[in-house]
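PROTEIN FOLDING TASK:
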Amino acid sequence: MSLASLLGSFAATSRAPETQWQVTVAEVIADAFATHFRDNEFFRAQCDAIGLTPQNLERTRSGLVKIPLLPVKMFKQPDAHVLLSVPLNDIELEIRSTGTGGVPSVARRDAATVTNTALAILGQYRDLFSISKGAGLFLCPSTAETPEMGMVKVFNLLNGLFDDHTYLVKDYAFDPQEALDYLERWDGSMTRYIVGPPFLVNRLLRFLELEDIRLKLDPESMVITLGGWKRYTGESMSREDFNAKIEEYLGIGTDRVRDMYGLIETNMLAIECAEHRKHVPPWCHVSIRDVTDPYLELPAGRTGTIGILDALSGGYPGFILTEDIGEVDETPCPCGRTGQTVTFHRRAHGAELGCCAVSIEKFIESQEVVAECAVPGAEAGR
């Protein structure tokens, strides 16, 4: 099956028999490998070093382990343009992510990749969320304010599925009372959806808890999150506590709370189903590698470094060794979807804590500290 066929039939292909999806994912990734081998001198040199060519690559899942993975830190290098398989003037979009160290990752996408990724994510949203109307409360900046932020771009694709929406992080400030006002304004007229990184949803929950306010959202309402569960301070947030507070203060069940996993260097977005398993789309393959030996692939169920092979990436080889620790599960999911599901646990020891949500949180909290330290009446006295 071709990549175009996969993108046009996500609902069906994500429920294909096991033997079929194994063949499909191997074929589309092998095709992507052949393209980058042909067009990318830097990547071809990595393949030449191990004697790998499109002709001797086994077009099976077990054969995919031989494809060289690019360490994610390469996207932070000043010469990251060497990763490109297309001319620099063919790049349409640059996505950036800044972590606590302040060094941005830059992932450049050509026009075909942008188109394919938009089709892919919209197909996943429709299948896993079934959204076609309602109102979206976005607890993040708009793309107008942060046009290069990957997390916001991914959230923004939901806009076309809603009848109404608003972005509540403006100039890196968030007012939970404004969020409550919107939720009450939409009550009874539209199904309400809350979208944002976990730490900002948690800020809304803390506000409701402190004010002793308990809402009852609609039966079809959802809370959709992306951005990791560790704060910029290093403190981890508990998913169980998070879900429990949503149930208590927003009045919706845990099956309506859906987290997503992705990173800007790949086009893979793994979205949770109602069973809270994050499904790897059929144009991607997750390869778990031994933490001490990235060339050694671990079997399903073992914990190691997450490697991602992404057939959507045309601008550069989408074969990435992340700094994330997790595992894959290939057992049948009760939701009926087949293929891999991925679980992310933490960043590797020594890896920079970096994602869009971390940058937003750090900036918001720094602004709040400045505001709290301001001397009352200082402006008036000038």
Residues 3-92+277-347 form a domain with the Rossmann fold fold (CATH 3.40.50.12780). The chain has a mean pLDDT of 88. The longest helix spans residues 18-39.
